[in-house]
Design goal:
The protein has 349 residues and is of the alpha+beta class. The chain is built from 9 helices and 10 strands. One of its GO terms (molecular function) is phosphatase activity.
C-alpha cells in the first residue's frame, strides 16, 4: 500500500513539473515569440508519454492541448509551418488521450514501468531453465531461439534437481502459437510447471500439467511437452512425452542415434490421460537430445527428414565438443520463423 501511494505521489509530482514547464513555454511564446518556437511545447508531452502512468497521462495530454490553444492565440501570424505544427501536436495529444484510456485496463502503469515488468517476466521464464549444479561427470545444456528474434517465445525449458542432487528433472515445453502470441501463455505455464515438477513424482507430473491446462480453459490452451527424470548415479532415466517430437539418444559405443518411443496425448485436450514411460540408461559417453518441433519442422518438408537433418548436423558439430553443442545446433538447424528449444544431456566418459 505504501509503495502504491509513493508511486502515485511521484506520478502527480512529475505531471506537476511538466505542467509548469509547459506553462513556462507558453509564457516564453508570449514575451519572446522570436526566441521560443511553438513546437517546443511538444517536449513536455513526449516526457509525459515516457514517465507518466495511464491514470495521469490523459489529463496531462488534455492540459497540453489547452497550452497549445493558448500558444496559438499568442501567434502574430499563422504561416503554413505553424499551422502544420499545431495540427500535428494537437493530433498526437488526442491520440495519447485515446490510447491512455484504452490502456487503462492494465492499471496505473507507465510505459517504462510496463516494459520493465515484461523484461522481469521474461527473465523468470529463463530462470526456470537454469541448469542446477551437477556432478562433473554430467553435462546438461539448453538453448532457446524465438520466432523473428522476439524476446518472448512459446518454447521453454524447466530444470530442477531432487533427491539430494542425485536426480535431475528436465522438461521441454512447446506452447501453441509462436513468438509474443505464445509468450504470454508460456509466462504463466512455466511457473506452474516449475512448481509441479518439483513437488510431484515423475509419473504424476504430466497428468498434473494436463489437468492444469484443462482448468485454464484458454482458447489455444494446448501444449506439447517431454519430461525426463535422470538418476545421476546410475544413468537410468524415465522419459514421458505429451504429443512431443521423439527424443533422441546417442549411443557412444556404436555412434548411432535412437528414436525413443515415448508417446502420449497433447496437454490440455483430453481429461484423465495416462502417459507411457520409456526407461533407458545413459552409459558413459551417451547423450540425450530433447527438442521442440521448430528444430525439425519446416514448410513442405517431412518431420522425419527434419530429424535426420538435425542428427546429421549434431554429428558434424560433435567434432569439436559436447560443450556448447546446444547453442551451436539451434543456430544451425530449424526454422527461423518458429520458436526453437533444445536440451542436451550428456554423460561424460
Amino acid at each position: 500500500m505504501m509503495n502504491a501511494r509513493r508511486w502515485a505521489l511521484t506520478d502527480v509530482g512529475t505531471a506537476s513539473v511538466l505542467a509548469l514547464v509547459a506553462a513556462g513555454m507558453v509564457a516564453g511564446i508570449a514575451y519572446r515569440p522570436e526566441d521560443v518556437p511553438i513546437n517546443l511545447i511538444f517536449l513536455p508531452l513526449v516526457l509525459g508519454i515516457l514517465f507518466l502512468s495511464n491514470r495521469v497521462l490523459p489529463w496531462f495530454a488534455g492540459y497540453v492541448l489547452i497550452a497549445l490553444g493558448c500558444a496559438a492565440l499568442l501567434q502574430e501570424e499563422f504561416t503554413a509551418r505553424i499551422v502544420a505544427a499545431l495540427g500535428v501536436m494537437a493530433g498526437v495529444s488526442v491520440l495519447v488521450i485515446l490510447m491512455s484510456l484504452r490502456r487503462g485496463q492494465i492499471g496505473n502503469v507507465g510505459p517504462l514501468r510496463g516494459q520493465s515488468m515484461l523484461v522481469d517476466l521474461r527473465d523468470r521464464i529463463l530462470a526456470q531453465g537454469e541448469i542446477p549444479a551437477l556432478p562433473p561427470t554430467w553435462l546438461v545444456e539448453s538453448a532457446l531461439s524465438s520466432a523473428g528474434g522476439s524476446p518472448f517465445a512459446g518454447d521453454f525449458v524447466v530444470a530442477t534437481s531432487g533427491e539430494r542432487n542425485h536426480r535431475i528433472e528436465l522438461v521441454v515445453v512447446d506452447v501453441s502459437g509462436k513468438g509474443e502470441a505464445a509468450g504470454t501463455r508460456a509466462l504463466q505455464l512455466s511457473g506452474a510447471m516449475g512448481g509441479l515438477v518439483t513437488a510431484l513424482p515423475p509419473d504424476r507430473f504430466l497428468p498434473a500439467a494436463n489437468d492444469y491446462l484443462l482448468k485454464r480453459a484458454w482458447e489455444e490452451g494446448f501444449a506439447t511437452a517431454v519430461h525426463v527424470s535422470v538418476d545421476l548415479v546410475t544413468g537410468v532415466y524415465e522419459l514421458r512425452s505429451a504429443g512431443h517430437p521423439p527424443a533422441l539418444q546417442r549411443h557412444a559405443g556404436s555412434g548411432r542415434w535412437q528414436l525413443l518411443p515415448a508417446e502420449g496425448p497433447v496437454l490440455g485436450i483430453v481429461e484423465d490421460v495416462e502417459y507411457t514411460c520409456y526407461r533407458g540408461r545413459l552409459d558413459p559417453g551417451d547423450s540425450l537430445l530433447l527438442y521442440t518441433d521448430g528444430m525439425v519442422e519446416e514448410p513442405r518438408r517431412d518431420i522425419d527428414l527434419g530429424i535426420d537433418h538435425m542428427m546429421g548436423a549434431a554429428e558434424s558439430l560433435l567434432r569439436h565438443s559436447w560443450d556448447g553443442l546446444a547453442d551451436r545446433l539451434v543456430a544451425a538447424v530449424g526454422s527461423p520463423d518458429d520458436d526453437r528449444a533444445l536440451l542436451v544431456v550428456h554423460r561424460r566418459p
